[in-house]
Amino acid sequence: MPALTVASVADPAPRLADAFVVPIGGVSIPLATCVLGALGVILARPLARRQESTLQLPLFLVVSAIMLLTVEIWIIDSRPPALFAFVIAIGLGFSGFSLIELVGSQVREFAARLITALSNKDRTP
Questions:
Q1: What angle do the packed helices 82-123 and 57-78 form, to 10 degrees?
Q2: Torsion angle of the four alpha carbons 89, 90, 91, 92, in this order, in degrees rounded to the nearest 10
Q3: CA 39, CA 45: separation in Å to the nearest integer?
Q4: Rg of the chain on CA atoms, in Å
Q5: Three-state secondary structure along 87-101?
Q6: Contact assessment for residue 30 and residue 74, using Cβ atoms and an 8 Å cutoff
């Protein structure tokens, strides 16, 4: 028994990610981590790439909202440590437009291949 007492380790302080967890609609929301994630995206947006700065303000805000939503859903789903979530949010806020462009181009290519395949199928008797 004394060996078990010495060998056990207790974490006296909770992680920041688990410190302020609020249940909303049956889902536990880590508020501190969500706030840090939102700050990371919002503070990194002014540093966005030059190509993205050509977007009009409404489109810039839509892209920002997509990135913000993505970060918040990721935080709620996977519960990363607070610092890691903040760093990832900064990265997404800074270069997330590239990710959206990449996904958009892949969807366009897939749709073009699908339409081509369907039109070729209609032509063969």
A1: 110
A2: 50
A3: 10
A4: 22
A5: HHHHHHHHHHHHHHH
A6: no
Best CA proximity match to 23, nearest among 76, 59, 92 = 76
Model pTM score: 0.68
Give the integer Cα–Cα distance in Å for 80 and 65: 21
Start-to-end Cα distance in the chain? 81
Residue type for 25, please?
Answer: G
21, containing H or E segment: strand 21-24
Alpha carbon of 35 to those of 19, 47, 86, 109: distances in Å? 13, 19, 9, 36
Per-residue pLDDT tens digits for 24-75: 888 889 999 999 999 999 998 888 766 676 778 888 888 889 899 999 999 9
